[in-house]
Design goal:
This protein has one domain. The longest helix has 29 residues. It has eight helices and no strands. It is mainly α and about 240 residues long. The protein is globular.
């Protein structure tokens, strides 16, 4: 079953990137939806799941501390790898900034697959929930990978190559877990860190980007819709 979800992450990421290549003028709406979806995954899925998995071993205060650690770690990586290249830079450096952003998203996608593989080691039920959470934002991962390259003067062919890397990354992440084993409690802490990652990506990257040059009410509604869709999907999955 885990291999099926691995293939699904590949397809979802690839479709998101192909959409970005064909619908550049609507990206603000898609990114607005993605921002809500990623924040929704963090708040409605990863947070409660991490608390459930660590119940009896770690307090909620510890979980929120790990969420903060995840947020800060991704923020530092963000600054080091220059994901947010909104400052004034020489045009010669534009492609390099785009590549840094794409590389970071590929690493993030690998960790997504790693999380899916570890979750299935705990139980199929936990694995399905984590995989659903990952799939909820894989489409936007593909969009962002392409977007980072294109908006920094990269070519469409270059964007497609990096899209393939990003689509394959979660599959490789899942495969890597065949050689590892972790306890339910440790997985809960890992999910808490992922929660911090997702909160940062949604609030500091996708949301501002969706409103860049398009601060419309429709974009805001798309963000709310993204959160609502994730909330509904998780509640239905738990019925």
């Amino acid at each position: 079953m885990v291999l099926i979800f691995g293939f699904a992450t590949f397809v979802a990421t690839l479709l998101g990137g192909l959409f970005a290549l064909r619908a550049k003028d609507k990206l603000h709406l898609i990114l607005g939806f993605s921002a809500g979806a990623v924040v929704g995954v963090a708040l409605f899925d990863l947070l409660p799941e991490s608390i459930d998995l660590t119940a009896g071993s770690y307090s909620p205060n510890t979980i929120t501390t790990f969420i903060a650690i995840g947020f800060v770690v991704f923020m530092i990586l963000d600054r080091i790898l220059t994901i947010h290249h909104r400052g004034k830079n020489h045009s010669d450096d534009k492609n390099q900034y785009g590549l840094h952003g794409a590389i970071t998203l590929v690493i993030h996608s690998f960790l997504d697959g790693f999380g899916i593989g570890l979750a299935f080691k705990v139980s199929p039920g936990v694995g399905i929930l984590v995989a659903a959470a990952v799939l909820a934002h894989d489409f936007s991962d593909g969009i962002n990978t392409v977007n980072y390259i294109l908006k920094n003067r990269g070519q469409s062919k270059t964007a497609f190559v990096w899209l393939l890397f990003d689509a394959l990354a979660p599959v490789l992440g899942i495969a890597s877990t065949y050689f590892l084993s972790v306890s339910q409690e440790i997985l809960g802490l890992i999910l808490a860190i992922f929660c911090g990652f997702f909160l940062y990506i949604g609030m500091s990257d996708l949301l501002p980007e969706s409103h860049h040059r398009h601060p419309t009410a429709l974009t805001t509604l798309m963000t709310i819709l993204g959160m609502a869709v994730i909330y509904a999907a998780i509640r239905l999955a738990n019925i």
